[in-house]
Design brief:
Structural class: alpha/beta
Shape: elongated
Strand order of the largest sheet: 2-1-3-4-5-11
Largest sheet: 6 strands, parallel
Number of helices: 10
Order of helices and strands: HEHEHEHEEHEHEHEHEHEHEE
Radius of gyration: 46 Å
Length: 393
Protein backbone atom coordinates (compact mmCIF):
# COMPACT_ATOMS: atom_id res chain seq x y z
CA UNK A 1 0.00 0.00 0.00
CA UNK A 2 2.76 2.43 0.92
CA UNK A 3 4.50 1.76 -2.35
CA UNK A 4 1.29 2.34 -4.20
CA UNK A 5 0.68 5.66 -2.45
CA UNK A 6 4.24 6.71 -3.12
CA UNK A 7 3.85 6.05 -6.86
CA UNK A 8 0.67 8.14 -6.97
CA UNK A 9 2.46 10.99 -5.24
CA UNK A 10 5.36 10.86 -7.74
CA UNK A 11 2.92 10.87 -10.65
CA UNK A 12 1.14 13.94 -9.33
CA UNK A 13 4.45 15.80 -8.97
CA UNK A 14 5.47 14.83 -12.50
CA UNK A 15 2.13 16.00 -13.92
CA UNK A 16 2.43 19.36 -12.16
CA UNK A 17 5.97 19.81 -13.48
CA UNK A 18 4.90 19.16 -17.07
CA UNK A 19 1.99 21.59 -16.71
CA UNK A 20 4.31 24.34 -15.44
CA UNK A 21 6.68 23.79 -18.37
CA UNK A 22 3.81 24.03 -20.82
CA UNK A 23 2.74 27.39 -19.38
CA UNK A 24 6.29 28.74 -19.68
CA UNK A 25 6.44 27.80 -23.39
CA UNK A 26 3.18 29.68 -24.01
CA UNK A 27 4.56 32.89 -22.53
CA UNK A 28 7.68 32.77 -24.82
CA UNK A 29 5.51 32.44 -27.95
CA UNK A 30 3.53 35.53 -26.97
CA UNK A 31 6.64 37.68 -26.62
CA UNK A 32 7.96 36.56 -30.01
CA UNK A 33 4.71 37.53 -31.71
CA UNK A 34 4.80 41.01 -30.22
CA UNK A 35 8.42 41.54 -31.34
CA UNK A 36 7.56 40.56 -34.92
CA UNK A 37 4.64 42.95 -35.03
CA UNK A 38 6.90 45.83 -34.00
CA UNK A 39 9.36 45.22 -36.80
CA UNK A 40 6.56 45.35 -39.37
CA UNK A 41 6.14 49.10 -38.71
CA UNK A 42 8.21 51.60 -40.71
CA UNK A 43 11.69 52.08 -39.25
CA UNK A 44 11.15 55.75 -38.58
CA UNK A 45 8.09 54.99 -36.48
CA UNK A 46 9.83 52.58 -34.08
CA UNK A 47 12.72 53.09 -31.68
CA UNK A 48 12.76 49.38 -30.87
CA UNK A 49 15.05 47.01 -32.79
CA UNK A 50 13.12 43.82 -31.89
CA UNK A 51 13.62 40.58 -33.78
CA UNK A 52 13.57 40.85 -37.54
CA UNK A 53 10.94 38.91 -39.44
CA UNK A 54 11.96 36.11 -41.75
CA UNK A 55 11.66 38.22 -44.90
CA UNK A 56 13.53 41.28 -43.49
CA UNK A 57 17.32 41.49 -43.46
CA UNK A 58 18.89 41.06 -39.97
CA UNK A 59 20.26 44.58 -39.35
CA UNK A 60 22.53 45.10 -36.34
CA UNK A 61 21.58 41.81 -34.65
CA UNK A 62 25.03 41.39 -33.09
CA UNK A 63 25.34 45.00 -31.94
CA UNK A 64 22.22 45.14 -29.86
CA UNK A 65 20.54 48.48 -29.16
CA UNK A 66 23.74 50.46 -29.96
CA UNK A 67 23.38 49.45 -33.62
CA UNK A 68 20.37 51.74 -33.88
CA UNK A 69 22.61 54.79 -33.25
CA UNK A 70 24.16 55.92 -36.59
CA UNK A 71 27.86 56.64 -36.44
CA UNK A 72 29.54 59.87 -37.70
CA UNK A 73 29.71 58.58 -41.25
CA UNK A 74 26.09 57.50 -41.39
CA UNK A 75 24.07 59.02 -44.25
CA UNK A 76 21.42 59.86 -41.69
CA UNK A 77 23.78 62.47 -40.15
CA UNK A 78 24.99 63.85 -43.49
CA UNK A 79 23.28 67.09 -44.50
CA UNK A 80 22.85 67.24 -48.26
CA UNK A 81 24.55 70.36 -49.68
CA UNK A 82 22.18 73.06 -50.81
CA UNK A 83 21.85 73.41 -54.52
CA UNK A 84 23.64 76.61 -55.60
CA UNK A 85 21.18 79.28 -56.56
CA UNK A 86 21.07 79.66 -60.28
CA UNK A 87 22.38 83.02 -61.53
CA UNK A 88 19.59 85.23 -62.67
CA UNK A 89 19.72 85.73 -66.44
CA UNK A 90 20.93 89.18 -67.48
CA UNK A 91 18.23 91.59 -68.53
CA UNK A 92 17.42 91.75 -72.19
CA UNK A 93 19.35 94.53 -73.95
CA UNK A 94 17.53 97.67 -75.02
CA UNK A 95 17.42 97.87 -78.82
CA UNK A 96 18.28 101.08 -80.62
CA UNK A 97 17.81 101.62 -84.35
CA UNK A 98 20.62 103.80 -85.71
CA UNK A 99 19.55 105.31 -89.02
CA UNK A 100 22.76 106.47 -90.67
CA UNK A 101 22.93 108.78 -93.65
CA UNK A 102 25.71 106.55 -94.96
CA UNK A 103 27.60 103.70 -93.33
CA UNK A 104 30.51 104.41 -95.69
CA UNK A 105 30.92 108.00 -94.52
CA UNK A 106 34.18 108.29 -92.59
CA UNK A 107 32.90 111.11 -90.40
CA UNK A 108 29.96 109.03 -89.16
CA UNK A 109 32.17 105.99 -88.64
CA UNK A 110 33.99 107.94 -85.92
CA UNK A 111 30.63 108.74 -84.31
CA UNK A 112 29.50 105.12 -84.39
CA UNK A 113 32.65 103.97 -82.62
CA UNK A 114 31.81 106.04 -79.54
CA UNK A 115 28.14 105.13 -79.70
CA UNK A 116 29.00 101.43 -79.74
CA UNK A 117 31.42 101.76 -76.82
CA UNK A 118 28.74 103.29 -74.61
CA UNK A 119 26.13 100.85 -75.86
CA UNK A 120 28.30 97.90 -74.84
CA UNK A 121 28.77 99.38 -71.38
CA UNK A 122 25.03 99.89 -70.88
CA UNK A 123 23.48 96.68 -72.27
CA UNK A 124 22.20 98.35 -75.42
CA UNK A 125 22.05 96.70 -78.83
CA UNK A 126 22.54 98.98 -81.84
CA UNK A 127 21.02 97.95 -85.17
CA UNK A 128 22.36 100.13 -87.99
CA UNK A 129 20.42 101.04 -91.13
CA UNK A 130 22.44 102.39 -94.06
CA UNK A 131 20.57 104.96 -96.16
CA UNK A 132 23.48 105.30 -98.61
CA UNK A 133 22.76 109.05 -98.87
CA UNK A 134 19.32 108.21 -100.30
CA UNK A 135 16.62 110.24 -98.56
CA UNK A 136 13.74 108.11 -99.86
CA UNK A 137 15.45 104.93 -98.68
CA UNK A 138 15.95 106.43 -95.24
CA UNK A 139 12.28 107.38 -95.01
CA UNK A 140 11.30 103.79 -95.78
CA UNK A 141 13.79 102.47 -93.22
CA UNK A 142 12.44 104.78 -90.53
CA UNK A 143 8.86 103.76 -91.24
CA UNK A 144 9.82 100.06 -91.12
CA UNK A 145 11.57 100.53 -87.78
CA UNK A 146 8.49 102.20 -86.30
CA UNK A 147 6.12 99.56 -87.66
CA UNK A 148 8.24 96.67 -86.37
CA UNK A 149 7.72 97.53 -82.71
CA UNK A 150 11.13 96.01 -81.94
CA UNK A 151 12.99 99.11 -80.83
CA UNK A 152 13.15 101.19 -77.68
CA UNK A 153 14.72 104.17 -79.38
CA UNK A 154 16.00 105.73 -82.60
CA UNK A 155 19.19 107.66 -83.27
CA UNK A 156 18.77 109.48 -86.56
CA UNK A 157 21.11 111.27 -88.97
CA UNK A 158 18.42 112.82 -91.14
CA UNK A 159 18.84 113.30 -94.88
CA UNK A 160 15.53 115.12 -95.31
CA UNK A 161 14.91 116.99 -92.09
CA UNK A 162 11.67 118.73 -93.05
CA UNK A 163 10.22 115.63 -94.67
CA UNK A 164 10.90 113.31 -91.72
CA UNK A 165 8.89 115.31 -89.18
CA UNK A 166 5.70 113.15 -89.47
CA UNK A 167 7.66 109.92 -89.09
CA UNK A 168 9.56 111.19 -86.06
CA UNK A 169 6.23 112.21 -84.52
CA UNK A 170 4.94 108.68 -85.17
CA UNK A 171 7.99 107.18 -83.46
CA UNK A 172 7.47 109.35 -80.41
CA UNK A 173 3.76 108.49 -80.33
CA UNK A 174 4.74 104.82 -80.37
CA UNK A 175 6.72 105.23 -77.15
CA UNK A 176 10.21 105.32 -78.65
CA UNK A 177 12.91 107.74 -77.59
CA UNK A 178 14.41 109.78 -80.44
CA UNK A 179 17.85 111.41 -80.53
CA UNK A 180 19.11 113.39 -83.51
CA UNK A 181 22.74 114.02 -84.27
CA UNK A 182 24.67 115.72 -87.02
CA UNK A 183 21.49 116.69 -88.91
CA UNK A 184 18.30 118.60 -88.17
CA UNK A 185 14.71 117.35 -88.31
CA UNK A 186 12.56 120.38 -89.06
CA UNK A 187 12.52 123.44 -91.29
CA UNK A 188 14.84 125.75 -89.34
CA UNK A 189 18.44 124.85 -90.21
CA UNK A 190 19.96 127.61 -88.11
CA UNK A 191 19.36 126.03 -84.70
CA UNK A 192 20.13 122.79 -82.95
CA UNK A 193 17.09 122.98 -80.67
CA UNK A 194 14.61 120.13 -81.29
CA UNK A 195 11.74 121.19 -83.53
CA UNK A 196 9.47 118.27 -82.69
CA UNK A 197 8.06 118.05 -79.16
CA UNK A 198 9.35 114.97 -77.36
CA UNK A 199 12.73 114.59 -79.09
CA UNK A 200 15.21 113.74 -76.35
CA UNK A 201 18.22 115.51 -77.86
CA UNK A 202 19.56 117.18 -80.98
CA UNK A 203 23.35 116.99 -81.04
CA UNK A 204 24.79 119.00 -83.91
CA UNK A 205 26.34 122.23 -85.10
CA UNK A 206 23.62 124.07 -87.01
CA UNK A 207 24.59 123.88 -90.70
CA UNK A 208 23.79 127.53 -91.36
CA UNK A 209 26.25 128.44 -88.61
CA UNK A 210 28.89 126.12 -90.07
CA UNK A 211 28.43 127.78 -93.46
CA UNK A 212 28.87 131.19 -91.84
CA UNK A 213 32.13 130.02 -90.26
CA UNK A 214 33.39 128.81 -93.64
CA UNK A 215 32.47 132.20 -95.08
CA UNK A 216 34.47 134.01 -92.41
CA UNK A 217 37.52 131.89 -93.18
CA UNK A 218 37.06 132.63 -96.88
CA UNK A 219 37.11 136.38 -96.17
CA UNK A 220 40.42 135.91 -94.36
CA UNK A 221 41.88 133.90 -97.24
CA UNK A 222 40.74 136.48 -99.79
CA UNK A 223 42.21 139.47 -97.99
CA UNK A 224 44.02 141.70 -100.49
CA UNK A 225 42.71 139.83 -103.55
CA UNK A 226 40.35 141.53 -105.99
CA UNK A 227 38.83 139.55 -107.47
CA UNK A 228 39.09 136.54 -105.20
CA UNK A 229 37.92 133.54 -107.23
CA UNK A 230 36.37 130.75 -105.20
CA UNK A 231 35.53 127.17 -106.10
CA UNK A 232 32.75 125.93 -103.84
CA UNK A 233 32.23 122.18 -103.22
CA UNK A 234 28.85 120.89 -102.16
CA UNK A 235 28.71 117.59 -100.37
CA UNK A 236 25.46 116.53 -102.01
CA UNK A 237 23.84 119.29 -103.96
CA UNK A 238 20.21 119.94 -102.99
CA UNK A 239 19.93 118.12 -99.66
CA UNK A 240 18.86 120.31 -96.72
CA UNK A 241 22.31 120.13 -95.12
CA UNK A 242 24.08 121.52 -98.16
CA UNK A 243 21.39 124.08 -98.85
CA UNK A 244 21.88 125.38 -95.30
CA UNK A 245 25.69 125.37 -95.54
CA UNK A 246 25.59 127.40 -98.72
CA UNK A 247 23.01 129.73 -97.25
CA UNK A 248 25.28 130.47 -94.30
CA UNK A 249 28.32 130.91 -96.56
CA UNK A 250 26.55 133.32 -98.90
CA UNK A 251 25.13 135.37 -96.03
CA UNK A 252 28.65 136.23 -94.91
CA UNK A 253 30.52 136.78 -98.20
CA UNK A 254 27.71 138.77 -99.83
CA UNK A 255 29.08 141.93 -98.25
CA UNK A 256 32.44 141.38 -99.97
CA UNK A 257 31.92 141.93 -103.71
CA UNK A 258 35.49 141.01 -104.48
CA UNK A 259 34.68 137.40 -103.54
CA UNK A 260 33.25 135.55 -106.52
CA UNK A 261 32.20 131.90 -106.71
CA UNK A 262 33.50 130.97 -110.17
CA UNK A 263 32.83 127.19 -110.11
CA UNK A 264 31.04 124.54 -108.09
CA UNK A 265 31.74 120.87 -107.50
CA UNK A 266 30.18 117.96 -105.62
CA UNK A 267 32.15 115.59 -103.43
CA UNK A 268 29.46 113.23 -102.03
CA UNK A 269 31.18 113.10 -98.61
CA UNK A 270 32.82 109.85 -99.67
CA UNK A 271 36.54 110.42 -99.84
CA UNK A 272 39.25 111.86 -102.10
CA UNK A 273 38.22 110.19 -105.37
CA UNK A 274 35.14 112.35 -105.87
CA UNK A 275 37.20 115.45 -105.21
CA UNK A 276 39.83 114.37 -107.71
CA UNK A 277 37.30 113.85 -110.48
CA UNK A 278 35.41 117.06 -109.74
CA UNK A 279 38.43 119.37 -109.62
CA UNK A 280 39.83 117.87 -112.83
CA UNK A 281 36.56 118.71 -114.57
CA UNK A 282 36.60 122.22 -113.13
CA UNK A 283 40.14 122.85 -114.30
CA UNK A 284 39.03 122.21 -117.86
CA UNK A 285 36.66 125.20 -117.77
CA UNK A 286 38.09 127.32 -114.94
CA UNK A 287 41.86 126.93 -114.79
CA UNK A 288 42.45 129.85 -112.43
CA UNK A 289 41.08 130.27 -108.90
CA UNK A 290 42.34 131.37 -105.51
CA UNK A 291 40.31 129.47 -102.91
CA UNK A 292 38.60 126.08 -102.70
CA UNK A 293 35.99 125.53 -100.00
CA UNK A 294 34.44 122.14 -99.24
CA UNK A 295 34.22 119.09 -97.01
CA UNK A 296 37.54 117.63 -95.90
CA UNK A 297 37.02 114.42 -97.88
CA UNK A 298 36.72 116.33 -101.16
CA UNK A 299 39.63 118.61 -100.41
CA UNK A 300 41.99 115.69 -99.89
CA UNK A 301 41.44 114.83 -103.56
CA UNK A 302 41.68 118.49 -104.60
CA UNK A 303 45.04 118.76 -102.84
CA UNK A 304 46.42 115.79 -104.78
CA UNK A 305 45.43 117.28 -108.14
CA UNK A 306 46.66 120.78 -107.35
CA UNK A 307 49.97 119.35 -106.17
CA UNK A 308 50.41 117.53 -109.51
CA UNK A 309 49.49 120.71 -111.37
CA UNK A 310 51.95 122.81 -109.37
CA UNK A 311 49.13 125.04 -108.13
CA UNK A 312 48.92 124.14 -104.45
CA UNK A 313 51.04 127.04 -103.22
CA UNK A 314 48.74 129.54 -104.97
CA UNK A 315 45.37 128.19 -103.81
CA UNK A 316 43.99 128.39 -100.27
CA UNK A 317 42.18 125.22 -99.17
CA UNK A 318 39.40 125.67 -96.57
CA UNK A 319 37.93 122.43 -95.27
CA UNK A 320 34.79 121.56 -93.37
CA UNK A 321 35.45 118.83 -90.85
CA UNK A 322 38.67 119.18 -88.86
CA UNK A 323 39.90 115.74 -89.92
CA UNK A 324 43.47 114.51 -89.41
CA UNK A 325 44.53 115.42 -93.01
CA UNK A 326 43.00 118.89 -92.62
CA UNK A 327 44.62 119.63 -89.25
CA UNK A 328 47.97 118.32 -90.49
CA UNK A 329 47.60 120.32 -93.70
CA UNK A 330 46.98 123.52 -91.76
CA UNK A 331 49.92 122.78 -89.49
CA UNK A 332 52.20 122.17 -92.48
CA UNK A 333 50.94 125.22 -94.40
CA UNK A 334 49.39 123.19 -97.22
CA UNK A 335 45.80 124.06 -96.18
CA UNK A 336 44.69 127.54 -95.18
CA UNK A 337 42.09 126.47 -92.60
CA UNK A 338 39.34 124.05 -91.62
CA UNK A 339 36.12 124.33 -89.63
CA UNK A 340 36.56 121.89 -86.79
CA UNK A 341 34.10 119.07 -86.19
CA UNK A 342 34.21 116.42 -83.47
CA UNK A 343 32.35 113.33 -84.72
CA UNK A 344 33.46 111.07 -81.88
CA UNK A 345 32.19 113.63 -79.38
CA UNK A 346 28.92 113.91 -81.31
CA UNK A 347 28.41 110.15 -81.16
CA UNK A 348 29.24 110.07 -77.45
CA UNK A 349 26.89 112.95 -76.63
CA UNK A 350 24.10 111.40 -78.69
CA UNK A 351 24.36 108.03 -76.95
CA UNK A 352 24.61 109.64 -73.51
CA UNK A 353 21.39 111.49 -74.26
CA UNK A 354 19.74 108.25 -75.39
CA UNK A 355 20.83 106.41 -72.25
CA UNK A 356 19.38 109.17 -70.08
CA UNK A 357 16.13 109.18 -72.05
CA UNK A 358 15.73 105.41 -71.76
CA UNK A 359 16.40 105.56 -68.02
CA UNK A 360 13.84 108.17 -67.03
CA UNK A 361 12.67 110.14 -70.05
CA UNK A 362 15.28 112.90 -69.68
CA UNK A 363 15.08 115.63 -72.32
CA UNK A 364 18.59 116.91 -73.03
CA UNK A 365 17.58 119.35 -75.78
CA UNK A 366 19.93 121.05 -78.22
CA UNK A 367 23.67 120.47 -77.90
CA UNK A 368 26.30 122.13 -80.13
CA UNK A 369 29.47 120.01 -79.80
CA UNK A 370 31.46 122.79 -81.52
CA UNK A 371 30.31 125.63 -79.28
CA UNK A 372 33.09 125.28 -76.73
CA UNK A 373 35.98 125.06 -79.17
CA UNK A 374 38.69 127.68 -79.29
CA UNK A 375 37.85 130.42 -81.79
CA UNK A 376 34.52 128.65 -82.50
CA UNK A 377 36.45 125.84 -84.13
CA UNK A 378 38.03 127.95 -86.88
CA UNK A 379 41.37 126.15 -87.22
CA UNK A 380 44.16 128.27 -88.71
CA UNK A 381 47.94 128.33 -88.54
CA UNK A 382 47.66 130.57 -85.46
CA UNK A 383 45.84 128.02 -83.29
CA UNK A 384 46.19 124.64 -84.99
CA UNK A 385 48.28 123.19 -82.18
CA UNK A 386 45.29 123.53 -79.86
CA UNK A 387 43.21 121.05 -81.87
CA UNK A 388 43.29 117.25 -82.00
CA UNK A 389 41.38 115.60 -84.83
CA UNK A 390 38.71 113.02 -83.98
CA UNK A 391 38.50 111.35 -87.37
CA UNK A 392 40.76 110.37 -90.26
CA UNK A 393 38.97 112.11 -93.10
Amino acid sequence: MKARHLMKLLGAVLAFTLLAAACADGDDDSETTEGTAATAQPAAASSDTGDASDDEPDVGADDGPAAAEPDDESPADTVAPEEPAEDEPPPEPRRIAYLSASSANTFLLASVGEMQRLADENNIEIVEFDAQFNAELQTTQLQDVIASGKYDGIILVALNGPGLVPDVEAALAGGMQVVLFNQIVGADLSTNEPQVDGIAASVLAPPVVTGERAGRLTIQACEGLDPCRVVYFFGIRGIPLDVALRQGFDSVVVDHPSIQVVAEGEGQYLGPERGINAIQDILQVQPEFDVVVGADQSLQGVELVLTEEGMLGDVALIGLGGSSPAVEGVRDGRWFATVFYAPASEGRLAMEAMIAALADGTITGGVDPNAGFLDEGLVTSANVDQFTAEWDG
